[in-house]
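User: I want to check something. If I give you two sequences, will you return the structure for each one separately, not as a complex?

Assistant: Yes, each is folded on its own. Here is the first sequence with its structure:
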Amino acid sequence: MEQTANHHAGKVISVIGPVVDIEFEGGHLPAIYNAVRVASEGGQGTTPIDVVLEVEQHLGENRVRTVAMEPTDGMQRGMTAIDLGEGITVPVGPETLGRVLNVLGRPWISPTCQ
């Protein structure tokens, strides 16, 4: 577990549906409601994933419980999790008027429009 560009890294220790437990080292625990990203490029039969999670609870023993904002399909124990240092934010303003955004602020595209 290391620190990457001012962001602390941890390891996934449990995945149960959208609930993911993550362990951080060195006494660093992300604040409640901080965003955490788990990403993997795949390889050797694994699916590439890029999932954003939100910290909901400090469990003790340098562990946090998070809830995924996207499907956790393909997530495995031992994957690296990066604390993004801030909560999930969504853009607002004239450029977003009339658009449908998901919980992460990404434009939602209807499957019928593709």
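And separately, the second sequence with its own structure:
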Amino acid sequence: MPIILTTQHITSLWGADAHGRPPAMTERTEARLRLQQRLHCAKNPATSEVEEIATPIEAYIGNGCWRIKCRCGERTHTNPEWGLACCFGCGAIYTHVIFPEHRAEIEALLVKRPVQSTRNWEPKETLDDLMAEQIAHGDPLP
């Protein structure tokens, strides 16, 4: 079954629980993300220092993945359950990622699209906008 990908799915390479689910955001997981970010910055001289950014930033869905647009231009993965995003382009760690109120409904519409590259949503789009797109392209409704 198709899903909207999050950072949690990507970090599932770190291990899964007994049911095959990716790890939840724990202090250990968050510490590991932050350490990975610092190690990346240390290995990549072009990357600036790690900087935590508490300014709220809106998430969007691009190519079937939850992301944010970093100040450096990178498109960084994020997770609705974590509210955190780490940019490996510039070292920024966003600690206040905002997700839409109707996140579940947005995801339910987008996963019905058969082609992952068409699973996109921007904060300016309403549920009605997405439903109209679904109908216009002949994609099924949930």
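Because they were folded independently, the notes below concern the second chain alone. The longest strand covers residues 65-69. Confidence is low (pLDDT under 50) at residues 18-22.
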